[in-house]
Records
---
Amino acid sequence: TTYRVASIPGDGIGVDVQREAQAVLDTAAQRFGFGLEWTEFGWSCERYAEAGSMMPADGIETLRPFDSVLLGAVGFPGVPDHVSLWGLLIPVRRAFAQYVNLRPVRLLPGTTSVLAGRGADELEMVIVRENSEGEYSELGGRHNAGGPGEFALQESVFTRVGVERIIRYAFELARTRQHRVCSATKSNGIIHTMPFWDEIFAEIAAEYPDVESEQLHIDALAARMVQRPDLLDVVVGSNLFGDVLSDLAAAITGGLGMAPSGNINPEGEFPSMFEAVHGSAPDIAGRGIANPVAQILAAAMMLDQLGEKAAGEAVRGAVQTVLDAGAVLTPDLGGTSTTGQLGSAIAEAIQSG
Ligand code: NAI
Ligand code: MG
């Protein structure tokens, strides 16, 4: 089999980490006997500066026939962040019904978690973030600009279909793991959407008596994640809550340089899109020191989704081996190696593994 993958390196360190992820995947493909055909698209803030848009008008149609999309990161100083987000990422997520944003977090060897020494060495959880509706909505507006009564309104949209499918996905996933789901809510302060979310959570929890379920307010859940992360397995949250929790989870398990994510269309009707949790990191862009592990792990999730699970496991195993050895580490991991050196070490570990 040969899989057709659309590669969108994007901006800043997105370009550097994408190069390493592609090389690692090519090595895995060779070793496991399948093909990867990459088609690169220069959709980025650079393109926006030149052409006035992040991607061409037919961008979505262009991506549709691909088996998957691997994205570096977009965003660069001078281009407002809402332009890069709403001009590329959000349209792709919505057009292809990538309603699950899956963010596995694991404490990897050789990394020092802020929780190190607090018994969190076996930390492993997954954040299931709703990725198509919720708080990230275009409904609303600004009013009475400049006047004393100036205000802004932002509506959230929670549909029954949207909430049911993400919560059900979380329970199904829990059945393949430790059989525990925790839902992020805030129904004490947000009185329309969050009680609706809670109600649906309770309905679906009743369908899964073999899975332990609990609900926590987002503030208490954030505290729990730092104090007792070992109690968490699958965490499900709305678009905003899931976004915040997944950066927090990444931070406590070794940093943004290690955290992958998948924007998944579970039905496989449209291509899914995989990316690191981190952004384009303009503060270190162009210096060749970005940690490529997050993007390489995102690429491994892509292999899983394509059905090449053995290859995905091999990539994760190679990352583990190289971090365990501790000889080739980027500066964020306390080393002095470059992005390219760490990427090559992981590719070599696949070959010899
Ligand atoms: P960021 O994730 O780019 O950087 C946050 C901090 O983490 C920086 O100090 C950075 O140097 C460090 N960091 C991130 N990834 C790293 C890696 N692989 N290796 C070593 N250090 C790493 O987040 P920030 O600064 O808030 O956003 C920068 C730009 O990225 C913005 O334009 C933002 O909109 C965009 N962004 C794009 C995302 C995407 O494409 N999905 C996601 C998040 C942000
Ligand atoms: Mg985020």
---
Amino acid sequence: MDAYEIAVIPGDGIGPEVVDAALPLVADAAEEAGFSFETTRFDWGTERYLDRGEMMPDDGLDRLSAFDSIFLGAVGHPEVPDHVTLHGLLLPIRKGFDQYVCKRPNVLFEGIESPLRGYGSGDIDFVVYRENTEGEYASVGGREHRGFDHETAVQSALFTRRGTERIVRAAFEAAAAREGHLTSVTKSNAQAHSMVFWDDVVEEVATEFPSVEVERLLVDAAAMDLIRRPHEFDVLVASNLFGDILTDVGAQITGSMGLAPSGNVHPDESSPSMFEPVHGSAPDIVGEGVANPLATVLSWSMLFEELGETRAADALWTGVTDQLADDDAPRTPDIGGTAGTDDVVADLRSRL
Ligand code: GGG
């Protein structure tokens, strides 16, 4: 029997609520599928930062490197600027383990009402491949002359051939596997260096995938078209920032941030990947027990899939699909119900 070691970082706000609620359910799914996993919990996050001035310890990445996979809840706290928390925990893990593919599926499940009129179950089903280690999140730049009239801030975006080729190739592979098409999103009319380079790379890599049709969209048009014609998208590939923004649009048109899972993946398994719900720490509902746990459950499904445990992955994904399709099943307020986090998980456990 395979036994995996998983690092769990519940993080801030509703992170611990959804992570702790989901754990017994995902353990059930593993047992049912004939494998087990041990979790090691790391209480890294903003409470630690407020106490000790660091989100995680200096040897944090070394400690995580021993694990088969990592699960993260949420990062962010009303008392600390978001760039401090993000750069102290989430981004160092993504970059440190070279998790260059941020995979974010956007599915309109049966039983979920999209804010877009006329869209129903199955009409929206696309996945965004977001570049996850460079681009606009590269931390290249600086801020000078603070407080003076000539104060200046520079933030450069970094696009390397290696980094761009590998995310574009990963997205082409996904499109080929889905027998679908690829949409590459840039702003190459305005950003004439980095994004024209991106377009060139897409054109080059496209020659390796003659069966995949490629569409190129500017990010403003892509944001509009995700609302105007979401049914026509299949796989999107975008830079770090654009991918982040577009996946929030994706979460809204498929019903709720509470249903949006993600994986930060290093595909060759030489270092651990990290899975997390797309939503943040949601300070407005912390402690109320109503955070939607389904993005967390779906992210565990992605984690199991990445480990090759497809039976457990499918059981979790199907459980969520069946629950959402059932009018009588409990739902959290973000998707129109009145139930609590624990009620939703208890119902899911009964369906496994
Ligand atoms: N679930 C992880 C989380 O808390 N995300 C909040 C966030 O701000 N993420 C930014 C990003 O994904 O780049």
